[in-house]
């Protein structure tokens, strides 16, 4: 043991160390205490620096830009809330907002329903089920942009396209999929459900595993059918997981960009334009940085407020 | 849901005497003689596997099939060939792939380092301002990366104070991905569970701060490291907007971004796009299949918090 020689505040009594760390330090050690208190900051420095540069400065800059008419080389002009008013007045953004909400809710709800049935189907401990679960989960790990490219090929809007071919076996189709304003948004939504449903499946499976088997036993003694058991035992037990997941996923869905951008770019004729694809085309293609920034800030405020509300509501529920 | 980090969801063990039909919500029978139930389940499982892996399997066949006609996709390549890859190579696909790999490797390494350092401070230390730092980290998790895309592209073009331009560099993609709230959070939760006594025993033996961190805490965090590594990789590989706005010209693209350009190139048939898509799929599949347990654990612990 080298206590005293190293001069560290460690002693043989664990409790003493803890109180020392909490600030109960005697006067002669104050200088060393100062050095000690810098240690956490040294460990945090890389994270804080990266956050500062790539999250907080851009955020602040985004808010600043949203208040200016941004003109490269000519200098920015302060315009107050004009950009925000411009966004609200713009029919492109109004339509995009509508599509975004439809897509977010449709995908979230659809994924949850499909995920729920997948979980019911694949619940169990057999090795073969584990294999099926792993296979079904693959779409979740594939990169969004890659999934988009694959589905573009599958959706080829010709009667002989891959998916139309498959549909014709069951007597359906052919569909125009992404090529026609009437079917494009649904087609985008289907890809989202395909990619996210297995994710929900995993969470619901975890929820199912947590259900007390004695409840099933009790309902079996009461002579319930499988459907009654699902309705009165399983679903109520899963409800907390499902509601939280639905709300958080729907809020997250408002930011959808990559899958829409890759699949349709917002087309055809703006039929699938969402908030972020509209921001992207304003900001990077039309170089209207001020308006695009204002729209970004609005999206942030909406998602932020909704998240906070959901979390507070959740805390309140859990506290009850 | 309050599953603590590091514990896999516990399966309720069946009490002896309870029928196996009560094992699952739907009451699937595991009895050997329940043929109807087994048959229905096998058919439905096959259907599920076809729907969720079918599109990925067609990528395999499409990538090795010379067919230029997107209407002729099939599950098995009619005429296996590497021609698509030869043509894709002429379109610089290997450069994009190298960009992707380099970014993934660099960003993942940085992300892991930054996360364990930050988590060590948050979990094992008490200091003034800790609550504010926690709030800041949570804020970054609630700040959608899409929302800051436009100002971020300006900041990357001219880093304040440092006067650096990261446009068109791999570093411009790597650095913004270096700190990720989710992995700091998962790591912090895990590190909190490590008993103080272990750390104190080491300090008594005269171990310094870095030594305690590297020799005591880190080795115990291996399960959590696997979780944040597999999530970090997936998140980095999934990046689309960031590499796109950082790129100066197509040579800087990652594979996922370049696919869209390949597709809109009229000389390029779907076979070549699928060849690229396959290349972009393989690393995710390898990572997922080799670290599957960590992945599932991460989802059940982290999803509700994110």
From TrEMBL, chain A:
It is found in: Cell membrane. Keywords: Cell membrane, Membrane, Transmembrane, Transmembrane helix, Transport. Residues 97-310 form the ABC transmembrane type-1 domain. It is a multi-pass membrane protein. InterPro entries: ABC_transporter_permease, MetI-like. Pfam families: BPD_transp_1. It comes from the Bacteria. The chain crosses the membrane at residues 38-57, 96-122, 134-154, 230-251, 260-277, 289-313. Belongs to the binding-protein-dependent transport system permease family. This is Binding-protein-dependent transport systems inner membrane component.
From TrEMBL, chain B:
Residues 97-291 form the ABC transmembrane type-1 domain. CDD domains: TM_PBP2 (cd06261). It holds the Pfam family BPD_transp_1. SUPFAM superfamilies: MetI-like. It is found in: Cell membrane. It is a multi-pass membrane protein. The keyword Transferase does not apply. Signal peptide: none annotated. Keywords: Cell membrane, Membrane, Transmembrane, Transmembrane helix, Transport. Its main location: membrane. InterPro entries: MetI-like, MetI-like_sf. Belongs to the binding-protein-dependent transport system permease family. This is Binding-protein-dependent transport systems inner membrane component. It comes from Kibdelosporangium persicum. The lineage of its organism: Bacteria, Bacillati, Actinomycetota, Actinomycetes, Pseudonocardiales.
């Amino acid at each position: 043991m080298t206590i005293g020689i190293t001069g560290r505040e460690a002693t043989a009594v664990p409790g003493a160390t803890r109180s020392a760390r909490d600030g109960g330090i005697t006067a002669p050690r104050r200088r060393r205490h100062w050095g000690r208190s810098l240690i956490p900051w040294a460990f945090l420095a890389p994270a804080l620096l990266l956050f500062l540069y790539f999250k907080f400065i851009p955020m602040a800059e985004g808010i600043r830009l949203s208040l200016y008419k941004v003109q490269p080389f000519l200098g920015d002009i302060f315009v107050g809330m004009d950009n925000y008013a411009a966004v609200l007045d713009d029919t492109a953004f109004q339509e995009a907002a509508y599509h975004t909400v439809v897509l977010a809710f449709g995908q979230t709800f659809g994924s949850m329903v499909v995920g729920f049935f997948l979980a019911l189907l694949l619940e169990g401990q057999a090795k073969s089920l584990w294999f099926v679960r792993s296979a079904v989960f693959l779409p979740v790990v594939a990169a969004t942009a890659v999934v988009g490219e694959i589905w573009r090929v599958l959706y080829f809007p010709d009667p002989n396209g891959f998916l139309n071919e498959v549909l014709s076996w069951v007597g359906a189709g052919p569909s125009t999929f992404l090529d026609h304003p009437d079917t494009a948004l649904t087609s985008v939504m289907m890809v989202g459900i395909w990619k996210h449903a297995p994710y929900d499946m995993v969470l619901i499976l975890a929820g199912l595993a947590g259900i007390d088997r004695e409840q099933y036993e009790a309902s079996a003694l009461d002579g319930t059918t499988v459907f009654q058991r699902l309705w009165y035992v399983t679903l109520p037990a899963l409800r907390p997981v499902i509601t939280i997941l639905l709300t958080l996923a729907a809020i997250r869905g408002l930011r959808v960009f990559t899958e829409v951008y890759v699949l349709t770019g917002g087309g055809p004729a703006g039929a699938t334009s969402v908030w972020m694809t509209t921001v992207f085309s304003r900001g990077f293609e039309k170089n209207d940085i001020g308006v695009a920034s204002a729209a970004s800030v609005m999206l942030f405020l909406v998602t932020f407020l909704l998240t906070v509300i959901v979390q507070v509501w959740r805390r309140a529920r859990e506290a009850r | 849901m309050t599953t603590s980090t590091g514990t896999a969801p516990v399966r309720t063990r069946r009490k002896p005497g309870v029928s196996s039909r009560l094992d699952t919500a739907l009451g699937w029978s595991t009895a050997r003689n329940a043929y109807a139930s087994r048959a229905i389940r096998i058919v439905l499982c096959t259907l599920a596997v076809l729907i969720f892996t079918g599109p990925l399997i067609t990528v395999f066949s499409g990538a090795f099939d010379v067919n230029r006609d997107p209407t002729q996709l099939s599950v098995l390549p009619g005429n296996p060939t590497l021609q698509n890859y030869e043509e894709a190579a002429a379109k610089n696909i290997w450069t994009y792939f190298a960009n992707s790999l380099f970014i993934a490797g660099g960003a993942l390494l940085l992300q892991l380092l930054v996360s364990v350092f930050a988590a060590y401070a948050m979990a094992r230390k008490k200091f003034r301002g800790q609550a504010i730092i926690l709030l800041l980290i949570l804020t970054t998790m609630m700040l959608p990366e899409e929302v800051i895309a436009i100002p971020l592209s300006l900041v990357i073009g001219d880093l304040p104070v440092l006067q650096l331009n990261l446009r068109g560099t791999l570093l411009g993609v790597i650095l913004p991905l270096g700190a990720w709230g989710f992995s700091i959070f998962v790591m912090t939760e895990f590190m909190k569970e490590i008993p103080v006594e272990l750390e104190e025993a080491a300090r008594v033996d005269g171990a310094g701060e870095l030594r305690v961190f590297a020799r005591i805490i880190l080795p115990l965090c291996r399960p959590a490291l696997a979780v944040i590594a597999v999530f970090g990789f997936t998140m980095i590989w999934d990046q689309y907007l960031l590499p796109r706005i950082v790129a100066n010209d197509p040579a800087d693209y990652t594979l996922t971004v370049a696919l869209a350009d390949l597709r809109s190139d009229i000389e390029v048939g779907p076979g070549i796009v699928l060849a690229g898509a396959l290349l972009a799929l393989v690393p995710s599949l390898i990572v997922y299949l080799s670290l599957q347990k960590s992945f599932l654990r991460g989802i059940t612990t982290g999803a509700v918090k994110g």
